[in-house]
Design a protein that fits this description.
mainly alpha; 81 residues; single chain
Length: 81
C-alpha cells in the first residue's frame, strides 16, 4: 500500500487536492518511503526535506505502519550518529 492510499491525501494523479497542492512528488514510485521525499503533504501542510519533516514523520500512522519501506537501497542519505 502506498502513502496516498493509506492517508487518502488526494495528491495522486486525478486526486481531489491536485489542483490545490499539486501532484505529490512521492507519486507514483515513492509512496512506500515518502518520508525521504521533499514536498509531501503532511498534517495538511506541504513539507520540506527529510531533515525538516522527520519529527512529523515519526508521529505519522503510515510511517509507523508495516506499509512503510524502511530499507535504504538507492538512498543517498548518510546518517551520522
Amino acid at each position: 500500500m502506498n502513502c496516498w492510499e493509506f492517508k487518502r491525501c488526494g495528491r495522486e494523479a486525478g486526486g481531489i487536492h491536485v489542483k490545490e497542492f499539486g501532484s505529490c512528488p512521492a507519486y507514483p514510485n515513492q509512496g512506500k518511503h515518502c518520508a525521504r521525499v521533499a514536498g509531501t503533504l503532511c498534517e495538511g501542510n506541504i513539507r520540506g526535506t527529510f531533515a525538516v519533516k522527520i519529527a512529523s514523520c515519526l508521529k505519522c500512522d503510515f510511517y509507523k505502519s508495516e506499509h512503510y519501506d524502511r530499507t535504504y537501497r538507492n538512498c543517498s542519505v548518510i546518517f551520522a550518529i
